[in-house]
Write a structure and sequence with these properties.
Keywords: Calcium, Hydrolase, Metal-binding, Signal. The chain is an alpha/beta fold. It has one domain: Alkaline Phosphatase, subunit A, CATH 3.40.720. The protein has 15 helices and 20 strands. The chain has a 10-stranded mixed beta sheet with strand order 7-6-5-4-8-1-9-10-2-11, with helices on both faces. The chain has a 4-stranded antiparallel beta sheet with strand order 13-14-15-20, with helices on one face. Helix 7 packs parallel to helix 10. The longest helix is centred in the middle third of the chain and has 25 residues. The termini are far apart.
Length: 527
């Protein structure tokens, strides 16, 4: 007998099943941001140094083999906090005065990638580094993430991740403060709108492994049929890279000293307050005063731990049957830093600098079920702020109207060759660079940074001071990627055109916002 119940139940089941299938068919998105990665330090690259070619980076290579590598890709800043703000919002962070660490008040009404996706039915999670200055919503669960585990700082120790480690330092009678060293429990937050951070201690663990484990668990977990957005923000290979994990230290022959918080004396690479003040330790072994003959090997140990994490993540996606329906976007927050012995060849400069070595970064985008594979894109000028609109177009969601980024999807699909006509960077209103096509114009972007020379066998030797020129400079990156020859005098029209472009760009930004110094009133000065 045909009843109303017999009719309604099958229809409801079909509707619910159809909804679930539709949700599952939406693409997943994984954004991987690594820290201070050297531009040359992946073995698939032709400029990869000897040590990288010898040991290989199978995780990075595997990602490239299934995607597109962009040769002309840039961060929006040569340092981490502003760059990450640019990625998160698809915008020039200078729009709210964020040029350097700790300046610029992040607008609370600025829509983020996870907010955009969460409001359209995505499960969202973030693991790793969060470093967003001057923002009331800086805790990830306050700007669109369902859950978070990581640290809220520019850096963190790789191994000393327990409250017991913090207490061990405080027991030392010579201890005053941690200075630039940051150790102790990680923090977690759960539930959107919850800003409470709870400490999570780990013993005998390594941050690179912890963040990879959390990401894999999230991929495996039942998310109620929702597509997912995973933001994996490693602290590798940011200093302190002299703290290494045993397996990878053995692989590259790097020194390895196990951490024993109960030892009477702590040997290098661990700071002991009884031996010297932290300022002295950091100046020496933070690679700002003396070079470390084994510094490159320590960097490599951390790099290969990171590369293995990428391999494990790819394995998890493949085993779960979600790899072809998942877009992976991989990048670094800024260029590699000479302080940790990264290799930025053939670029000039390092992190902190507006030379190519400070702002040009590796970008790989992979979605083997949808996009071409094993592609090197040599023509498109792309930026970290393009990640948000690319995700929006892929997922069929309208991107916020007030962004500066442009979707890379047409370039990825090889429907067009060019992307941005030009992009700009600035440390403040008077120190900036702008790139248009093959040309790069710099004004008052001078910077000096102590450098090192990396030998054929990864040994570290004294090097020359790394500099970037002041004044007006024009470089032809097509023929001079190392930015060695100023051709401004030979191309006055190009200089004037690019000066006009910068003037127009700067008119849309706001001046650098800086917190007043504590002694500003005392000195009778305005800051």
């Amino acid at each position: 007998m045909l009843t109303l119940k017999n009719i309604i139940l099958p229809v409801l089941t079909l509707m619910l099943t159809g909804t679930s299938l539709q949700a599952q068919q939406k693409p997943n998105v994984v954004v991987i941001i690594v820290d201070d990665l050297g531009y040359a330090d992946m073995s698939f690259l032709p400029q990869a140094p000897t040590d990288i070619k010898h040991y290989k980076t199978p995780g990075f290579d595997r990602l490239f083999a299934t995607g597109t590598y962009f040769e002309n890709a840039y961060a929006t800043s040569p340092i981490c906090s502003p760059s990450r703000a640019g990625i998160l919002t698809g915008s020039y962070q200078q729009r709210w005065g964020n040029y350097w660490y700790g300046d610029g008040k992040f607008p609370n009404n600025k829509v983020t990638i996870p907010e955009m996706l969460s409001s359209n039915g995505y499960a969202t999670a973030k693991y790793g580094k969060t470093h967003l200055s001057g923002w009331e919503k800086k805790v990830p669960t306050m700007h669109g993430f369902d859950e978070y585990l990581g640290f809220m700082h520019h850096t963190w120790d790789y191994i000393r991740l327990s409250q017991k480690d913090v207490d061990a330092y405080k027991k030392k009678k010579e201890f005053k403060d941690f200075g630039c060293q940051v150790i102790g429990p990680l923090v977690k937050a759960e539930g959107q709108g919850n800003e409470e951070l709870k400490p999570v201690s780990y013993e005998n663990s390594f941050t690179t492994d912890i963040f990879t484990d959390e990401a894999i668990n999230f991929i495996k977990r039942d998310k109620g049929g929702k597509p997912f957005y995973l933001h994996l923000s490693y602290n590798a290979v940011h200093m302190p890279t002299y703290v290494v994990e045993e397996t990878w230290a053995k692989k590259v022959g790097a020194r390895y000293v196990p951490w024993d918080r109960n030892a009477a004396k702590w040997e290098y690479p661990y700071w002991d307050p009884a031996q010297e003040p932290h300022k002295t330790f950091h100046k020496k072994w933070g690679h700002m005063g003396e070079y470390d003959s084994e510094g490159r090997r320590c960097y490599l140990a951390n790099l290969f731990a990171l590369d293995y994490g990428i391999s494990r993540l790819l394995d998890a996606l493949e085993k779960s049957g979600q790899r072809e329906n998942t877009m992976i976007i991989f990048t670094s927050d800024n260029g590699g830093t000479v302080n940790t012995y990264s290799n930025n060849a053939p670029l000039r400069g390092s992190k902190y600098m507006l030379g190519e070595g400070g702002i040009r970064v590796p970008v790989i985008i992979s979605m083997p079920g949808t996009l071409p594979q094993n592609i090197v894109n040599k023509s498109a000028l792309v930026s970290g702020m393009d990640i948000m609109p690319t995700i929006a177009e892929l997922t069929g969601i309208a991107a916020p109207e007030d962004i500066d980024g442009i979707s890379m999807l047409p370039v990825l699909k090889q429907e067009k060759k060019q992307h941005h006509e030009w992009v700009a960077w600035a440390k403040n209103e008077n120190s900036w660079v702008l790139r248009r096509g093959k040309w790069k114009l710099s004004k008052n972007a001078g910077w000096g940074h102590k450098g090192f020379t990396i030998g054929e066998n990864s040994e570290v030797l004294p090097g020359k001071k790394m500099t970037y020129p002041s004044g007006i400079n024009l470089f032809n990156l097509e023929t001079d990627i190392g930015e060695t020859t100023n051709v401004a005098d030979q191309n006055p029209e190009v200089v004037q055109e690019m000066l006009a472009l910068h003037k127009e760009w700067a008119s849309r930004m706001i001046p650098r916002y800086m917190k007043k110094r504590k002694n500003s009133k005392k000195n009778g000065k305005k800051n």
